[in-house]
Design a protein that fits this description.
heterodimer; A: 563 residues; FAD/NAD(P)-binding domain; Flavocytochrome C3, Chain A, domain 1; Methane Monooxygenase Hydroxylase, Chain G, domain 1; five-stranded parallel sheet; four-stranded mixed sheet; 15 helices; 22 strands; 35% helix; B: 96 residues; alpha+beta; Alpha-Beta Plaits; four-stranded antiparallel sheet; two-stranded antiparallel ribbon; 3 helices; 6 strands; globular; binds flavin-adenine dinucleotide
């Protein structure tokens, strides 16, 4: 089978890996700025329905409504994230949010507007849309921009020459083709990572998860393997979601003013000091531990008209909850919606795990940029924040490539990656990707703070996770794949194992509890600003197979030009 | 949640190289089977984005909740009318 695979060589000026919110916008903005530059956007899916936005969304979660300033946005994110964030990155995101939103409007995404044509706020920093079509709308704008698009190619590693990133390798999941793509600069926009922990639902419902099951941390893993510095993996993201269908709850709580009630009918959030995103999750978990569960978002106050509007809002983002109501034979205003925590995800657009980048979204590897959920340091960027990062990266890359020459690639590097990538196709015996995936998810669940361990970790458990991950890594070379689809599944596990190993080292290093639930150390249960008000970063040394931790001081907003 | 393809309605998008659902599935889960109709590799890998449900010109694809998460037969289909999508939900009772 391996011998049937043909090696295809492509060349471009700027390679964008991942055609989601960040990648599409990067491509579009580069072409708007300079139509003569070659841009190639590669996606493992089909850009019209790939990534987080496949199902659609019903709000632009990051938008500055009248009266809200970029500094207000920074202050809000800071407060919600226990103060330790990259304020410079958040500020530069905030500056571009409204422009990105207006572009979506211009491209034809249906916004809900009042009679004067103003957007309707959902909360202070969000507006309502009917966003089922957001991905097709973005894809259309990308195609019209003149950027080239290569769909169904799973990127597996960067092409690194003399320490500089000069392209990437990948394979088609539909055709017998292995790609070598040469570029002067690379923008990584592959989104975050799901599937590291055992999910909420079993068996055939296992992919009924919140984050896209097809975003499997490839961008992080490629960066890790190439030695890029990563930040704050220990701040995982765990979402408060509707039980079973794992639909977002903001729609209910913010959009429809549903109160969080425990089984005694009490509005329990009032008994907790904070109301931030993680504290709403923490409160719900505590109510359950202490015997006052299950907890609900109460929708019984809605009139029939509002109940219909609620259904409509979910149809645009997470239609499965409508099936739940239909299966139960109830209308949304007849009973509350039960809520729960999801499995932990690694996602820089909600929490802040990701590449350590500068204000221009340059990673620590020359030639490589990161934008969107894969980039670290700036929580709560969501769709529009991811787009802004794509634009910043794209425009800086445009300047950067002017002084970069084309490269020659040594055949031996190509051969090495080819063999690593297609190896499992030649094995008749061995573990299946699914077996390896379940092994990873189980050990992370039990020893690195998954659902079954109430998201909590301590040193002894983490050391066991480290040991089990090391032995799992050894077994990855004994895997087999009998189709290109399975080969993709195999690489998804390989990437998640690399991400999980870094995650465990970060969790081990931070000896405090800063982000309740997301990063909860039972052996160090308090926030400790004196010793830990700093970033935990890491760099992987592939020769030694060692993850080295680097501590970085927190700096304020810094000297941004126009701050 | 996952999908079910009604083989009586699916025509594999006629002569098209790829049926529309196969073209867009974000997880690469759909393919054209030997009868030239769309098929899903593994129902457990579906995320339920509903992309295929909306895209299918024949309305041949429906979504349902798996029994593991309390699915009792209710289904969701969609009709695309120019730029707008109309969703149709059938309760478990009438679908069974
Ligand atoms: C269910 C859900 C609902 C959400 N709702 C909202 C909302 O209402 N409002 C809001 O503002 N935000 C919302 N968000 C957040 C928002 O969708 C994300 O923050 C945003 O899409 C991140 O952009 P991105 O480009 O980093 O990732 P994505 O948009 O996910 O794009 C990543 C792309 O990379 C591709 N890719 C991954 N790996 C590879 C590889 N190895 N090779 C090639 N390509 C690869 C993927 O196929 C994908 O197309 C929601 C997210 C989810 C999951």
């Amino acid at each position: 089978m391996k011998s049937d695979i043909q090696i295809v060589e492509l060349e471009t000026d700027i390679l964008v890996i991942g055609g989601g919110a960040a990648g599409c916008y990067a491509g579009i903005k580069i072409k708007e700025e300079d139509e003569d530059v070659n841009v190639l956007v590669v996606d493992k899916g089909q850009v019209e329905r790939s990534g987080c936005l496949a199902a659609g969304i019903n709000a632009i979660n990051a938008y500055l409504n009248p009266g809200v300033t970029p500094q207000d946005f920074v202050d809000y994110v800071k407060k919600d994230s226990e103060d330790l964030v990259r304020e410079d990155l958040i500020y530069t995101i905030a500056q571009g949010l409204n422009k990105a939103t207006h572009d979506l409007d211009k491209w034809g995404l249906p916004f809900i507007k009042d009679k004067e044509g103003n957007y309707i706020p959902k909360g202070k920093r969000s507006v309502k849309i009917k966003g089922e079509s957001i991905k097709p709308v973005m894809a259309k704008a990308l195609y019209q921009s003149g950027a080239r698009v290569l769909n169904r190619v799973n990127i597996t590693n960067y092409l690194v020459i003399d320490g500089k990133v000069r392209g990437a390798f990948g394979f088609s999941v539909r055709e017998n083709k292995f790609y070598l793509i040469k570029a002067k600069a690379v923008i990584c926009a592959t989104g975050g990572a799901s599937g590291i922990y055992k999910p909420n639902n079993p068996g055939a419902a296992r992919h009924k998860i919140w984050y896209s099951p097809f975003n499997t941390g490839a961008g992080y893993a490629m960066g890790i393997r190439a030695g890029a510095e990563m930040t704050t993996f220990e701040m995982r993201f765990i979402a408060l979601r509707t039980k079973d269908t794992i639909s977002p709850t903001g729609t209910l709580a913010v959009g429809f003013k549903a109160k969080q009630l425990n089984s005694l009918g009490e509005e329990y959030q009032k008994n907790y000091s904070k109301k931030s995103t993680p504290y709403r999750l923490l409160a719900t978990l505590k109510e359950n531990f202490e015997g006052r569960g299950p907890c609900y978002l109460d929708t019984t106050h809605l009139d029939d008209h509002k109940a219909e509007a609620l259904k409509e809002a979910y149809l645009h983002m997470s239609p499965s909850i409508l099936l739940r109501w239909a299966n139960r034979g109830v209308e949304p205003n007849e009973e509350g919606v039960e809520i729960c925590g999801t499995e932990p995800y690694i996602v820089g657009g909600h929490a802040q795990a990701g590449y350590w980048i500068d204000q221009n979204r340059r990673s620590t590897l020359e030639g490589l940029y990161a934008a969107g959920d894969v980039a670290g340091g700036a929580p709560k960027k969501y769709v529009t924040g991811s787009m802004v990062e794509g634009e910043i990266a794209g425009l800086d890359a445009l300047e950067y490539i002017r002084s970069v020459e084309g490269v020659d690639v040594d055949k031996s590097i190509v051969k090495e990656e080819f063999n690593r990538v297609v190896g499992p196709l030649n094995r008749e015996k061995g573990f299946t990707p699914r077996e390896l995936e379940e092994r990873l998810q189980k050990l992370m669940d039990e020893y690195a703070g998954g659902i079954s361990s109430n998201y909590r970790v301590n040193e002894t458990k983490l050391l066991e996770a480290r040991r089990l991950l090391n032995s799992l890594k050894e077994d990855l070379v004994k895997a087999r794949a009998n189709s290109l689809h399975q080969l993709m599944n195999f690489h998804e596990v390989v990437d998640r194992v690399d991400v999980a190993r870094v995650l465990v080292e970060h969790l081990l290093w931070r000896k405090e509890t800063r982000w309740r639930v997301y990063q909860e150390r039972t052996d160090y249960p308090k926030r400790d600003d004196q010793n830990w008000f700093k970033f935990v970063n890491s760099v992987y040394d592939s020769k030694e197979d060692q993850i080295k931790i680097i501590e970085r001081e927190h700096k304020g907003i810094g000297d941004l030009d126009d701050h | 949640m996952t999908i079910r393809i009604d083989k009586n309605l699916c025509d594999g998008c006629g002569k098209a190289k790829e049926p529309l659902c196969v073209r867009i599935c974000p997880g690469n889960l759909l393919y054209k089977d030997i009868d030239k109709k769309a098929e899903i590799r593994d129902k457990g890998e579906c995320w339920d984005c509903a992309g295929c449900v909306k895209e299918c010109p024949k309305g041949a694809i429906e979504m349902y909740l798996q029994p593991e998460i309390d699915g009792r037969g209710a289904t969701l289909r969609a009709k695309k009318k120019s730029e707008k999508v109309e969703f149709i939900i059938k309760s478990g009772k009438s679908a069974c």
